[in-house]
Structures are given as structure tokens and as C-alpha cells.
Amino acid sequence: MMARHRFSLDHMVFPDGRKPGVKRDKPSRIMDRCDPVKTQIETIDRKYWDELADTRWHKNRRSRYRFTLDQNGFGSCAWSSAAAGKGALDEHQNLPRILYNAFFGYHWTSGGRDGGSVIGDNVTLLQTRGCCPEEVWPSSNGWRTKPSAEAQRIAKFFRLLEFFYAETIEEVVSALLQGYDIHAGYSGHAVIFNRYKKRGKVEFKNSWGNWGDDGFGELSLSKIYFPYGAYAYKNCRVWTPEEWAPRHDQVQLAMAVEAFMQESMGVSRPWSKQKQRGAADTYKRTLEAFGIAT
Q: What's residue 287's pLDDT?
């Protein structure tokens, strides 16, 4: 059996077309947003970490990430990873599978400039405004366009309920081993950590489309930069099909959106009105190529 290639961010080099997108937070703001994760978990002794990481349950945690989002050439990694974490919670809570828009929250957390955002602002927005399904608010709208009132209404069905901040490596690994996902960052980039991999490494889900091992990579624990904020996701709001139900096959939609992102990478920035019309036309054509009527 061929060994998997290990994609790492330990020596950070942004691929062509990608850019940093996470800002440092203030310690007081981190603590004001939520309670510490140490109030929710048992701190696990380091000598047990590798043994617990070898359990089938823990190794299978990556299976909860059904889709890989793509932030395109924008600095929206903090929001895109928040949306990916929401999708993993859906799977954990046996909720219907939904592809979320990778830009929805960045409209607010960016402050109106594509200069990145604070992880905690995105997590808080995920709790208050929620996460919008792709088919309600298409990625072709970009991040500058304010989401419609209908998109904002529907997004509130898909909210994060509880999250907690982590302050140490011990808390991060203990939380991962007890079923939490960790939203944190390193060297200007935000990701969602899904499991501990042994020997001081953690696995994360990235937001660079088809990068890495099906969108996954690994990082040394020592590289996590806590001044960005590190948040453990616990649960999300349970929604029902009576509130909103998808019309399209979400797997096909994800494939179509990724094809759109690859075609529009580096071409649609900045998203002027003229370029946005072009993006909308490209988006429609791409979805139709995948058998999705718009």
C-alpha cells in the first residue's frame, strides 16, 4: 500500500494565489467571548496521548469533513475554516449534509478590506449570524456584497451554539482527544484542527481547495500561535428540513463550486461590478456543466 504524502505547514509557504488572512487578537477579548475549555474537559496526561490517538474512533474523525472549502485568493481563511468546522459538527450530530458558503461571514469580519480577520470574530459571528448554505448565497457573490436578507434569515438556522477557548497545547490535544474540533492558526493562516496524530503533530482541514491530502495537512503542535485565539467547537443548533431543505445534491454542488474556484482564482479580484457579473456567468455555466440547474 502506498504511503500517504504528509502535507505540512511547519515551514509556511503560501502557494501561488494564496495569502495570509488571520490577525492577532487581544487576550481580554478572547476571554470575554466564552468560557475556557478546561472547564469542559479532563486534561489528559501526555503519556497517554499517542495511545489514544491510535484508537479507531479518533483516526476516523477526519471522515466528518465531507467537503473542502476554497477561500480562493482572498484572506478569508478564518471564516472558511469556521464554516468547515460547522460542517463537521453537522456530521457529528447526524444532521443533513450541507455545503456552506466560504465567504458569507467574511463580509462582516473583514471590516470591508481584504486584509484578513480575527478568528474569534468569525467564531462569534458563526454563533450569532450562522453559516449560509452555498445554494442560498452562491460563492460568485464574493465577500464584498452584503448577503441578502433571505440569506441572513436562513443562515441563522445553521449556528454554532457552544465554543470555548484553549490556552495551552495540553488543552488543545485533550480537547481533540475528547471530541472537540479546534479553530486556531499559525503564521498568518487559520485552519480547523480535527485530530491529534501522535509524536507532537496535529491534523487540520485546510481551505485551499484540492491542496494537500484531500484538503488535510499536518502541523507541529509547537507551531500553533495562541495570540490568534484557539477555540474548541462543541455543538451546533439542530435544524429541520421544515425550516430549510437543499434542492441540489450537495456533493455535486461541492464539485461544481471547486471547479468554479479553480477557474476564477486570481481572475476575479477585486470583485468589481463588471467582474462580479462575469463571475456569476462563470458560476452558472460551471454548475450547469455538473448537471445543476440554477
A: 95
Q: Give the pTM.
A: 0.93
Is residue 255 in some structural domain? Answer: no
Structural domain boundaries enclosing 221: 22-242
Whole-angstrom CA distances from 264 to 17, 107, 144, 270 are 11, 19, 16, 11
Q: What is the share, in percent, of the chain residues with pLDDT greater than 90?
A: 86
User: CA-to-CA distance for 86 and 239, rounded, in angstroms?
Assistant: 13
Is 276 part of any domain?
no
10-residue mean pLDDT series, the chain (294 residues): 53 84 96 97 97 96 95 95 98 96 97 96 98 97 96 98 98 98 97 96 95 94 97 96 95 96 67 62 94 86
Contacts (Cβ under 8 Å, ≥6 apart) of 113? none
Cβ contact 52:58 at 8 Å:
yes
Specify the pLDDT at position 9. 61
Cell for 2? 502506498
Diameter over CA atoms, the chain = 58
Nearest CA-CA partner of 205 in 187, 193, 195, 221: 193
Strands 22-23 and 117-118: parallel
How far apart CA 139 and CA 103 sit, in angstroms, is 7
CATH number at residue 83: 3.90.70.10
* Residue 45 forms part of a structural domain: yes
